[in-house]
Design brief:
Blueprint (H helix, E strand, L loop, with lengths): L1 H17 L5 H16 L3 E6 L2 E4 L7 H18 L3 E3 L9 H5 L2 E9 L2 E10 L7 H29 L9 H18 L3 E8 L2 H8 L1 H18 L5 E6 L2 E7 L3 H18 L4 E8 L6 H17 L5 E6 L7 E2 L8
Parallel strand pairs: 9-10
Antiparallel strand pairs: 1-2, 1-5, 3-4, 4-5, 6-8, 6-9, 7-8, 10-11
Length: about 325
């Protein structure tokens, strides 16, 4: 009875520590922390639906961990049962001696689906705690499936279904928030609006399916060129908008030109671009969008496949054409 009570207490502790997770990465992190602290381990790694977290990351031994887990992962994929390595009899696991640990590895199963793995590194294997760990993994699976479903619903609410980029609503929400912060810090903000040249003609001659493929391709190019700090969105049709926080005039123009050339190189289309940079972020979101749209209109009206850059020094001073005034800073 006392063992059953202990099991229930540990499982409850796991639930309390992990069920507040908002993402798979957070859940993996909380799970690894829990196992290390509860089972007095030297290290722990968790894989869940592609998300991964290791309790201790040491560049000197991380390659050893990765090699061991690569080997064990293939075993777990084939057997779908726990695997224990107490000694390094197999040369593939010789790195365990270097680490000074035994390894206990568990497949994480959601029914018949293999959704991840748990790697426990300790002085001994945890075979004697199999029943307890199995009970914990059942709760982990429920949490992982819930978080994954929540993340997918959340993503679908803020993303464009065709390209996977953010949608117009999410873009404006984040832009207004970031502009308010940037204005306090007096940081520059840039907005980039792009439009596919002659897209209507492309659709009419090639068909809407080919048009969708082109839009998806542009979304892929944007993801490859955008930095982690950028917010990329599809506003609808062939128009895309990107927010470049803390980006000066010359940097914004250089980035936009790189994007334009990447599209010209990799897609069967060209794009026209309008850029607006506000040096102190005093312009509102609607003002910046208006100026960027005006710059785009100029690009399309003066030959297409080009970038026009407008600059706002302060919202009280209006807007100027950065290229015409030779502004490069």
């Amino acid at each position: 009875m006392s063992e059953r009570i202990r099991e229930l207490e540990v499982v409850l502790e796991f639930i309390e520590n992990t069920y507040v997770s908002q993402s798979l990465v957070e859940l993996a992190q909380r799970t690894s922390d829990f196992f290390v602290n509860r089972f007095k381990l030297g290290n722990c790694a968790v894989e869940l639906f592609g998300a991964h977290h290791r309790f201790i990351t040491n560049s000197n031994v991380s390659r050893t961990y990765l090699l061991i887990e690569k080997r064990v992962r293939s075993i777990l994929d084939n057997t779908r049962t726990p695997h224990f390595v107490a000694r390094a009899d197999d040369p593939i696991f010789s790195g365990l001696e270097e680490l000074g640990y035994a390894l206990s590895a568990f497949p994480i199963m959601a029914g018949k689906d293999h959704i991840g793995n748990l790697y426990l590194y300790g002085k001994t294997t945890v075979e004697h705690d199999m029943q307890l760990i199995t009970a914990i993994l059942i709760k982990l699976v429920k949490a992982a499936v819930h978080v994954k479903n929540y993340s997918e619903v959340k993503h679908s609410a803020i993303s464009d279904p065709l390209t996977g980029l953010y949608n117009k609503t999410y873009f404006f929400e984040t832009l207004k928030h970031d502009l308010a912060r940037a204005m306090k810090e007096k940081e520059p903000t840039s907005i980039v609006i792009i439009d596919i040249d002659n897209f209507k003609n492309f659709n009419d001659t090639r068909g809407h399916m080919e048009g969708d493929i082109l839009l998806k391709g542009l979304g892929d190019v944007l993801r490859n060129v955008a930095l982690d700090s950028h917010t990329t969105s599809r506003f609808g049709g062939e128009e895309f908008v990107i927010h470049l926080p803390n980006t000066k005039t010359g940097e914004a123009y250089t980035w936009a030109e790189r994007l334009r050339k990447e599209v010209e190189t990799h897609l069967e289309a060209t794009i026209s671009i309008g850029v607006c940079t506000c040096l102190n972020s005093s312009a509102s979101a609607s003002q910046m969008m208006k100026h960027a749209d005006e710059a785009l209109y100029k690009s399309k009206g003066t030959g297409k496949n080009k970038t026009t850059h407008y600059l706002v020094i302060d919202r009280s001073l209006g807007v100027i054409d950065a290229e015409a005034h030779h502004v490069t800073g």
